[in-house]
Fold these 2 entries.
Entry 1:
Amino acid sequence: MNTPPADILSGLAKLLEEKQEKILEDFWRRIETEAYFSSLRELAGNAEHRRGLSVLFRLFLRRLTNPADPRCYSYIRQLIADHFWNGRKATDVTRAQVALEEAILEEVREWCGEDVQCLSECTSAIAREMNEVRLVISESYSEARDQELRASEEKYRSLLAHASEAIFVAELPGAVIVEANLYSGKLTGRPIAETVGTSIEHWLPPLDNPALWEFLSAPDPADFFHSDEGLLTTTDHRQIPVGLSASIMHQDGNRVVQLIVRDLSAQRELQRHEEEHTRELEEQVAIRTREVAESQEEYRKLLQAERSRTSELAMLNEVARLALEMPDLSAFLRSAAEALQRHYGFYDVVIFLLDRSTNELVLRANVGAYERELDSGYRQKVGVGMVGWAAEQGATLLANDVSQEPRRILAFPQEERSRSELSVPIKSGAEVLGVLDVQSQQINAFSEQDVLAVETLADQMAGAIERARLNEETHRLAAFNEHVVAVLPYGLMALDPGLRVLRVDDTFAKELGRSPDEITGRHISEVVDRAFLDQTGLLRRLKRTLKTGEPAMLNEVRHLATEAHADKYIDVRIRRAGDEGDRMTLLFVRDVTTRARRTYQLRLMHQVSQLLQQTLDLQRLIHATLTCVTAGSALGLNRAFLFLYDDETRELRGTMAVGPSSHEEASRIWRELGEKEFDLEEIIANFSDATMATPLQQAVSQVCLSLEKHPSHLLARVMAQRKCIHVTDATLDQELWDTIASHFELRDFVVAPLVAGNRTLGVVFADNKFSGRLIEDSDLQLLGSLAAHAGLAIANARAHMDLAARVRELAYTSRQLREAQERVIQRERLATIGEMAAKVSHEIRTPLATIGGFARTVLKVPEDPARVEESARIIAEEVARLEDLLRDMLDYARQPEASPQPENVNPVIERACLMVNQQIADRRVSLQLDLGEDLPEVSTDARQVQQALLNIVRNAVEAVPAGGEVKVSSARTPQGVRITVADNGPGMPPEVAAQIFSPFQTTKHGGAGLGLFISRELISQNGGSIEVETKPGKGTRFVISLPFKVEADPANSGTAKEVREP
Amino acid sequence: MTKVLVVEDDRNHSRLYELELSEEGYDVVLASNGKEAIRIVEETYLDAVVLDINMPVMDGLDALGRILDARRDLAVIINTAYAHYKDSFMSWSADAYVVKSSDLTELKTCLREALAKRGR
């Protein structure tokens, strides 16, 4: 097989790692064929086998040293040629060398391990061999470098060849050309062959640029030269503009110049074209401009003529019109001056009016040159200057050349420029009202006709000024009256004796929702709502006041237009005015809704907070809250919504809404409200499910907002920031509109958080959808305050509900717990019984084994009397022990139910002690009784206590050695009675004492270990307890405590019964 | 003479072992609880221990660990009325586990085998 398998490289890596020398040997045999090696090279050259390449290197390097195999040099050389040079840079080869050396060293280290001699031998061998390898590598390296150099040279040449500039390289000094590119021939028309070897100066004499020649022939030229001014003459005598760049370079100690000649002719041509084109354009534009200017001039002249024809008439006309139209004198004067200035193009027009009180002329209008210089209000004495003269004399003064006019004074700097001036008095009859003064910058500017025109104008002005003055006075008075009426908080209506409206002011008319004109002339009953008249008896009151002259008043009554303003309140004042025969009744109304509502709100708020705190039914409470928001004139909002926050789902749920669902319903409700007083208590009392069956309620209960999904929702913000917000246009908040507002058509509304302590329970919001009354700041405050009350009340109600639920839950849990406890106790009992059965069977095993063992002994050695006797004795003992065990067990099983009765324990103790008399005598033990006197009776089952006591006393008697002492005493304690059994026996170590009450724990021989267990059971059934105090060598003391009364323990008695009745 | 310690809290039962094992030719030493047994093991050279488990002061399983700590090569036969201690891994370190019976044949056999294993 001459081709290696595809995975041979990874296989080889594995062989190398595992040092499978024998298989590697086989590999070396195969590699002897050149074809096999070629295939390997191909595999290693594949990009997927990059690591394979290093495997081969390692393999060959290893073979170089072990055993020395000269073929490897050539293999390595080929591999380097293949993969470290092919298409790479020389630096890669040096990197490869370093890598190789590292690889070899690693290989050697691995090979020699810790064998120092092997290492030194290998290292010297490698040093030898590495020279060979280095040679191989350096060959590859120089080859790589050569190729790189060749490549860069080629690149340079191709650059030269394809340049669009003529490039010469010449040696200095002398500038003999050593190289010239193709383009240089093209540019000059000479073959390149001729070029090389000649001096630039010689070759390019037609190049007209002395600076270049200077640069080139300088003994020590600068490094760089550039000029765009060259002119090259070609062989066919064309002159080409060229750019020249020369740079000096140093090459192998020689100075070389590189000269670049760039053909600029195309560029110049383009420039020339552009310039020409621009010039042409400019000429055309100039011609057009001239034409336009000429035609404009002509037009202007025509226009001028036309204008002057019409100006005079138009001006007079305009001023006349202004005089009629403009009631304000100042505005008229200014407009007149403007018209005059505009029509004549005067330099300046000034109008003065005479102030009689000071005999001064006051500047009232100024148009033209001084316009910006002057504030109106400038004053000039009558008699001073041309204007003063005209006013004094009441005659026109014309100065056609002001320099010749002695009366002229210069009031303003600009006046210096005027050459002619005309001052015309404004007269009404003989009275001078003021002066009209016009100025021009030309001498002789005013013709006779102009003077006439200005005088006419002055006359017209006089009339207008007179009218305006009158008008102004009237207006001033009227405005004063209006102002006085307007600042009064009352609306006013005057009625004639027939109760027809004589006059009504805007305020009053607005309250009625009509214009004053609509009302004037009508009968009072036609303009005021019937309901209002009926409720207030207004007609009667008006008539009385008219008759008697006594004023009357109505405070905080419902609005005149009851239907339209159900939520408004007014004060009404009635007075009589005028003289006999011209009587009238004055009716003043004042909107006191705000004040009335405030008072009402405060009163209500107090009532609400009290009522809310008393109401524990959540539904009723919420309904009452919302009713407060909507009904009556409390907040007087139309609709109210309440959303409660669900902590678990983090949602705001629509809980309740109160309010009409249509305009019709709204007005019906308001009518009803108008008829009866709002009574919150009644509303709370009348609340029922039917109250909730409204369309609005249906709608609200279907709206739910997840605050998790809408963390920056307006309502989320209200919840989080706990502040009230007034939303003036909900449609502007897309999120709010989509989620909440659109469901209820909420636009302008207020929101308040329901706050209780540090929690926010939900939100309340309300609007005025039907009345359209604007929501005010006070509404917001009130809603906030109401919501705070409601929040507390809701928290209260919730707490109450929670408490009720908790109580139910607790009762349930308690029942469950008791049942569970009973089950546990029963299970424990059963477990105890099971445990006991197991223990009993094992307790029996030891005595049985003993009995059997000794019985066998008797059988085995019947002739040994001593053994037989001992065996018989032990058998008897063990049988007695089994009988004891049986007795104890039966005692325990037979325990009857405790039937406690008031008992004195002393007789019980005495009886128990009597029963151990025999043992006392047998064991020569003394038993002493120390019974307390006048012991209280305790509620116990005497028989059970006696049994318990007997076991303990018997134990004590058996524990003490012969001559020992047992003391039984009784005493009164605060809780009941204490019985103590103390002995002076050996005592017990703590580990034994700890086990003493467990069944089958015995230290004494022959006991079943049930006695104390049973005693404890009996005492605890009687509500008492047993404790033991003992120490080795110090005797033992049992203390039995019995309480006065057994506490009822149904669980205990129940299970005890089950155990006792098989 | 092979020395055997019988650890047994029941006086009559240990008397039975004393008689029976002496008859077999063993030198019988008695202990009535684990603590006593450990003291004897530490003070006396023994060949084997017959160990009851349910005893006051220190039970047999506790004692077993300490006995083997003191004498690793000691043959130990657990002899108890309770079969369920077999489940306790402590008991696995004993040579045998024999439930109490009036017939001491099994106990004697186990004792003999345990000693034979040790070449005694």
Entry 2:
Amino acid sequence: MTAIELAELTGRGRVHSLSGQERGLEARNFYRLDELDQVEGVVVVNVPDDLDAISPSFFQGMFAKSLLGAFDRDADRFLRHYSFKAPTHVLTQVQRGIAAVLTRRPGQPLAH
Amino acid sequence: MKWRKQFRKFSRGRQEAEAKPGNAIFEQFLHQKVKGNKARTAGSAADRQRTRRRANVLKRAITRRFRFRPKSKIPVLLLAFRQRQSRLIDALVKPSERRWLKPLVRARQGASLEIQVKHFCFLDRPDETWETIGKMARAEAGAWNIRVHFDDEQCLDIAPYLLTAMLWKDLAPVFSGGRMTTELQSVIEAVQLRRQLGMGRFRLDLWDRYNVHAFPLHQRRAANSSTSMTRHLDPQTRERVGDNLVSSINSWLAHPELEMELTPIGRGNIKNIVGEMLDNAERHSMPDTMDGDWTIAGFMARREPGEDQEEYFYCSIAFVSIGASISDSLSTCAPGVAKVLNRYVDMHKAACDVEVLRTIMSIQDGITRVPTAYEEGRGGTGFQEVIDLVNDLGSPHPPTCEPKVTILSGHACLKLHGPYAQGVRKGGDPFAPREIWFNGANDSAAPPDPQYAFRLRHAFPGTLVTLSFVFKPERSAGDEK
């Protein structure tokens, strides 16, 4: 089972939140999510217990391409593939991030 | 003796050659001697110490040796002060109109002024507040002594004081105090703005009396100065700031009299507000490099409105970013965004300023200035997220204490409170974009309400977002939302 350790981005507890779209994009490259989107099985995203916030911008930077591309806007399929192990309040923020990704943009084609 | 010989050497022949009177030549000589070290940051402690030392040396030399004796009313630091350039000052006073008098000239021609400051709050009176700060900047150009009286009973918004503190280091040291109410003193002291505002020491026993807890001023390093190859993978300053803010709030709520703390959701909301706002400032205030700077400050005050009403905690946080305005930064947007933007502007430009219309459009969901983000279907949701989070934190609230957000950017000012406090997804569709058009129908086809979306008299050189919300003790203790 493949795992993504978000503690690597927090400096092992130096900060307790993740924010910023550019940061999310760098994290996507760092964890090679383009490849992980295609692997069989579940990818576990381990969120540290001391992490309080994942901002919608960071989530969009890291996962928008996956959700809109490989998973064709299917949030359930996305969450079955990327299993977030996180406290309840962080899972709520993940849902918020998914809603931000799926929000329709003006004049934009839906599919990649 | 050394000063006399140097001055004679300097002035030999110049008086006649340059056709200037003796005191003008003398001032040239002074400025040549008091050269600031350009590498040293203006306003830093070392710079102030050096300036003070040189000013004292010059003053002794002048009084001993020369016939141009400055009057004793001139502040010592003013003697050695040179005019400084600042984007904030240039925004408030046109450089061509700013007649900055040199220190010795002020002794003869300058005035002693008093400025009354009332309703100093961007949330409710953004234009008047910005003009008040402009009044201070204009008065500084010619006066030798200015007293500023802050006559508000309570501090409703930390943003004007934060801006004044940012402006102060580039103004001549002509401000000599003034009136300030006790609660204002406690807020200014708690946010550590007193020294930057050039004020004397306050009485420290006021702090507990007014139950003010503050988040002191935090600034990001200068724009475009990043050197790390893994800049975005490293823990970010804005994330540390969010952590510090939450820790500060929790440490105060843990006071034996209160014994409370923020819920995990409350912590997450505050950190997301800070993260989104500061990330926006970094990415959009410097569109070319996405490496802008920002300044943040805030405070929380425990207030007791009256015997019949419960006490509540009033919070004010301000974010300032100097650089490109929101309207200007949108010039790099993708064609799809430009089409929607231009259509909206063309529809309403007869009734409303173009910059205001562009700023209104920028806060709608899905509007981003980054073409690649638009094509990849991400971004453009930051402002609406912050507005939602502020409303979540501040609900429920006492009748007169609704959550408020005010945005100043360039000439545009948007007040997100009252009837236009939050974006709405049309039809209740969870994936419809959140929209807020500042009119009764919340429709882009109608023009915006000029009471809530209007043009400022003087442009703000960047973006300022100030927000306030209140929460009540019983909600903080028991709510699991």
